[in-house]
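Quick illustration, no need to memorize.
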Amino acid sequence: MRRVVAVAALAATVAGCSAGPPPAPAPAPVDHVVTLTVEVVGGGGGLFGMAVTWGHSRVETQSATSLTWAWSHAVTLRYPDVERVWVSATPQVRPGVDERLAYAGGPPTLHCTILFGDRLVQDQSSISPTCEANLSASPPAGRAPAPGQRSGGTAD
């Protein structure tokens, strides 16, 4: 009888042990209004458009062509369903513009930004910039956006 009690006590002790703490609860869903922008800065806006690719962790990469100096796309994304968003671009000479004339002053600079609501969370400038940002359950730690540097080109 003593042996049965000891085995029962051991079984109860082992049953109460677990491999670790219980799993953390899933994060509560949070909606983010995300705005992706790309623009030609510092000149060349009237001569160049751009090829833009963008996407997020729940969709295949999307492509767009802008014949003007600026492109923008706003979308509402829900965390934790979507965890990452990105945009990149390369300049393209606008149709009807002589390529030698367009590049006479050198290649243009493009500037990309990602905003979560009214907070700038990523920005890059180069001939072919890529901006990436991670969504989270907490408010973004970005900063208020500075006024954009316009190219002086026309967006026709």
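The radius of gyration is 26 Å.
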